Amino acid sequence: MSLKIEQDDISKKEKPLGSQSLFRGLQLIEILGNFPNGCPLAHLAELAQMNKSTVHRLLQGLHSCGYVTPAPSPGSYRLTTKLISIGQKTLSSLNIIHVAAPHLEQLNLITGETVNFSTREEDHVLLIYKLEPTTGMMRTRAYIGQHMPLYCSAMGKIFMAYEREQFAAHYWQTHHEQIQPFTRNTITELDKMYQELAEIRRLKLSLDREEKELGVSCVAAPIFDVHQQVKYTVSISLPTARLEQAGAKVLIDAVQDIAQRISQEIGFVTPQEG
């Protein structure tokens, strides 16, 4: 379902004047990003809503530029690592990664858990840095560059909590078809989300209580910039059983401390009371 939604979003966006082939080629790249092992040409044409001859011609152009290559399965295509190189160059240009990385590594060592660092891109969380756990065997499916919904992730709820007052209602109205219960704990009612966001602002902390995946919990904290705005979040993901075993307070304190340190490095000053 998510793939269809993404394609609907693509078709609804107003494209600026320019080469139609360019936009169609980029559309194919976005679709192929969902098929790491390759996508058959016929299926790709169906998803892109283009005829097979057009898709084949575009794929040949992308192949000649090094962005696409034939997959092991006959008649299928996949992306090349050239896009990874471009993505890494883009991420490395973000000074925030250089500032945050030492702190995130420290959090990884302290907790031993998966550490995530994200920003917001439109109505999604964008994961821009991740460290795998140093203890245990659990590896999350999250990856750098991944988009995640706002409403069912600890990091996403952080961004919602520190948006303008009307944002949650607008989000619910414009994303009602996408808001679904992944688990019995997923918040799908706007009134309950209002309560959740108020608590997040009060505690400067967000929890994913198995809202996206049973057995997996997440603790996130906001990172404030010099303008006291939340542009980034940091979180740890771990099995719920280990969260209970280690003690939630210990892990929460560690995440909030690292978030505060990164905030201070990018110019945040705690407002004076009174």
TrEMBL record:
The keyword DNA-binding applies. The keyword Lipid metabolism does not apply. Residues 19-81 form the HTH iclR-type domain. GO terms for molecular function: DNA binding; DNA-binding transcription factor activity. Coiled coil: none annotated. SMART domains: HTH_ICLR (SM00346). One of its GO terms (biological process) is negative regulation of DNA-templated transcription. Signal peptide: none annotated. Residues 82-268 form the IclR-ED domain. Keywords: DNA-binding, Transcription, Transcription regulation. PANTHER family: DNA-BINDING TRANSCRIPTIONAL REPRESSOR YIAJ (PTHR30136:SF19), HELIX-TURN-HELIX TRANSCRIPTIONAL REGULATOR, ICLR FAMILY (PTHR30136). This is IclR family transcriptional regulator.
